[in-house]
Amino acid sequence: MEPRRNKLKLHNGTKKKIVAGNWKLHKSPAEVGEFFAELKKLDLAALNSQLAIFPALVTLSAAVEAARGLAVLIGSQNSSQHLQGAFTGEVSPKVVKQMGAELALVGHSERRVLFGETDQLLAGKVKQAQDSELTVCFCVGETLSEREANLTEKVLAQQLEAGLSLANSKTPIWIAYEPVWAIGTGKIATSGQVRQTHEFIRNLLLKLDFKSAAILYGGSVKAENAKELSQIPNVDGFLVGGASLEASSFFDIAKATVC
Ligand code: PGA
Questions:
Q1: Average of per-residue pLDDT across 67-71
Q2: Alpha-carbon Rg of the chain, whole angstroms?
Q3: 242 and 225 in contact (C-beta within 8 Å)?
Q4: DSSP H or E stretch at residue 197
Q5: CA distance 62 to 86
Q6: Are the CB atoms for 21 and 246 separated by under 8 Å?
Q7: N or C: which end of the chain has fewer CB within 10 A?
Q8: Residue 29 CB: number of other CB atoms within 10 A?
Q9: What tens digit of pLDDT does each residue of 178-194 get?
Q10: Which atom of ligand 1 is found nearest the CA of 221?
Q11: Which SS3 state, helix, strand or coil, does residue 17 take?
């Protein structure tokens, strides 16, 4: 299969914001096709956002095919620190790239919590994905008890400093700030919390020399809250779970996003 090349720039060097959907373990190949068929009917040219979808890995190929001709980037939800070898069940970023995907999601809180992925492991995954020419979307976020104990900044600094320790700071990267307590719960961080946390992340990234990083917010983003959230300084876009599963609600979020 010929890799799909997309000439769009991937970071906030453009004026575009990023609206990325994380489908987790949802959708069959047929449902992936239906989603993109629905999306094609909508007025994507009117959007000012760069769209991206992270389909379940077994449907990556179906998503690349279905998104052909659309300005939607496709990415893997996981990406191994290994390229090949005796690593049963792993996902080679090199092959992900060959299949026509352009992004790799690394460090989602479900991977950290449910699959025991450590900061050290994630640093290797980030590096290998970048070396394979995938743009990394690296996720960070605090739990509710960490926020209540005033540990948010400490936790985020630890996750970012460790997770990016092997990364190339000159390569564009997406950082998704997703408070764990806001993921799939319908609870949304307040504008003040998002403003303060994104500013903290931006300053830390500048200190670490990641000047071309885009910072996405994630956690119960919907069309109803996207407009307000998108106007907060240092919010360069969104990582959307539940509301990205339907083409219309995903489109509505992008439409509500102010660039
Ligand atoms: P949610 O998920 O939008 O359903 O809260 C976000 C995510 O897990 O990336």
A1: 95
A2: 17
A3: no
A4: helix 191-207
A5: 26
A6: no
A7: N
A8: 16
A9: 999 999 998 889 999 99
A10: 3
A11: strand
Pocket test for ligand 1, best of 174, 220, 252 (most atoms within 8 A of CB): 220
Q: How many CB atoms lie within 10 A of CB 130?
A: 21
Contact (CB, 8 A) for 253 and 52: no
The predicted-structure confidence for 241-250, as pLDDT tens digits, reads as follows 999 999 999 9
CA of 141 to the centre of ligand 1 (A): 12
- Say what the pTM is: 0.94
Query: Cβ distance 105 to 54 under 8 Å?
Result: yes
Which residue from 193, 167, 172 is spatially nearest to 182, judged by alpha carbons?
Answer: 193
Task: Identify the bridge partners of residue 136 per DSSP, sorted by sequence position.
Answer: 104
* Ligand 1 midpoint to CA 155 (Å): 19
Collapsing DSSP to helix, strand or coil, 12 comes out as coil
